[in-house]
Amino acid sequence: MSPVLHFYVRPSGHEGAASGHTRRKLQGKLPELQGIETELCYNVNWTAEALPSAEEMKKLMWLFGCPLLLDDVARESWLLSGSSDLLLEVGPRLNFSTPTSTNIVSVCHAAGLEPVDRVETTRRYRLSVWL
């Protein structure tokens, strides 16, 4: 079975504004909501026998990052949940490949990353609530 590699992208400035909008909408239905944070996760199906080399990993991190931000991609989640937090991950069903995945795979192959055969993007939410 091929490993699925996860690349977590720290939210940029415009996503912070979107989180504020989402928080305001949710607080009408969930008054206990204290805050909301988001991140993107690229789930990469890697088909090679070995895990990516340092050079391949560097390419993947570069492809999934923002060219204007340094160190915005990590292998570990940026969202650390506390005891009163709820962590949700929203994305496509895993039984079919999305058009976005097809496009990302084409870019990966053009960059010499042939073992990538599927990349699905999910959005992760950390909801902080008052108990």
From TrEMBL:
Instruction: Supply the alphabetized keyword list.
Output: ATP-binding, Ligase, Nucleotide-binding, Purine biosynthesis
UniProt superkingdom: Eukaryota
Instruction: State one molecular function term (GO).
Output: ATP binding
Q: Which GO terms describe its cellular component?
A: cytoplasm
- Please state every residue range assigned to the domain named Phosphoribosylformylglycinamidine synthase N-terminal: 83-128
Annotated GO biological process? purine nucleotide biosynthetic process
User: Short name of one Pfam family for this protein?
Assistant: FGAR-AT_N
Q: Which PANTHER family is this protein grouped with? A: PHOSPHORIBOSYLFORMYLGLYCINAMIDINE SYNTHASE
- Protein name from the UniProt record: Phosphoribosylformylglycinamidine synthase
Q: Which organism is it from?
A: Piliocolobus tephrosceles (Ugandan red Colobus)
Gene name linked to the record: PFAS
